[in-house]
Design a protein that fits this description.
The chain contains six helices and 17 strands. The chain has 241 residues and is α/β, with parallel strands linked by helices. It is globular, with a radius of gyration of 16 Å.
Length: 241
């Protein structure tokens, strides 16, 4: 089964990036089909999933399990936790399946990949953040790329820290988009400011998400897969392609 998803591509340059790396960024899949993006995964050096690979409002997560099995065959997969993982009734079973898979779980931890530091700041109850992890992460000498499911967590806990680039989801593009503005986002309420695109001079990029996790339709707000081309450069910059 195919889904209508845009491909949104950015070039990211920084003197801290040692070589060219292509990343496919796929938050908010919510255990829906993903066959249409497998070729994009194969063309990438790694796949990043900033949370909500499952849907806590559903009893089954067949496509989530398939993702754990199939996506790592296309490229290395790095996964951080969103609110649906934290709140789902089947959390214990899901986390066992993640541990048994070839997916790298970054639950308030980081790893070195191709000369860059990839971290995951996991969703926590009451919107709190693991500040101990953040202090350790921002001291890393490499280019620091953080997965943070909630844009509002970035606003409250990441902004101003020594983090080169943060990738978020969760806001679903504001669900309904009119004149470039979303109407509602969980965690931000009505007329949210952080729903999609590039913010803070490129320090944060928000995906509209891979699927529609809400019971309402999306209007003027297509689902999307982000593709990031990381390259060495004289100064940090993010450019839409």
């Amino acid at each position: 089964m195919r889904r209508s998803r845009n491909r949104v591509r950015y070039r990211v340059r920084s003197p801290r990036i040692p070589g060219k790396i292509t990343l496919a960024v796929a938050p908010d899949l919510h255990a829906e089909p993903f066959d249409d993006v497998m070729e994009d995964f194969r063309a990438a050096d790694a796949v990043l999933v900033p949370g909500d690979l499952v849907n806590r409002h559903r009893k089954t997560y067949e496509y989530g399990v398939r993702f754990l099995k199939e996506a790592p065959k296309a490229a290395p997969v790095f996964y951080s936790l969103g609110n649906h993982e934290r709140k789902c009734a089947f959390r214990a079973d899901w986390m066992r399946r993640v541990a048994d898979s070839e997916v790298t779980l970054l639950d308030d931890r980081s790893v070195l990949f191709r000369g860059i530091r990839i971290g995951g700041l996991s969703s926590q109850p009451y919107g709190e953040a693991n500040l101990r992890f953040m202090k350790e992460f921002e001291r890393a000498p490499e280019f620091r790329l953080l997965m943070c499911h909630h844009p509002e967590m970035w606003r409250d806990y990441v902004r101003g820290r020594e983090v080169d680039l943060t990738l978020c989801g969760h806001a679903h593009g504001g669900q309904f988009q009119f004149f470039g503005r979303g109407i509602y986002a969980p965690g931000q309420g009505l007329f949210p400011k952080l729903t999609h695109g590039v913010h803070e001079g490129g320090r944060m990029i928000i995906s509209r998400g891979m699927s529609n996790g809400a019971g309402l339709p999306r209007i003027n707000n297509p689902c999307e897969l982000l593709i990031l081309d990381l390259e060495p450069g004289e100064a940090f910059e993010v450019t839409p392609l």
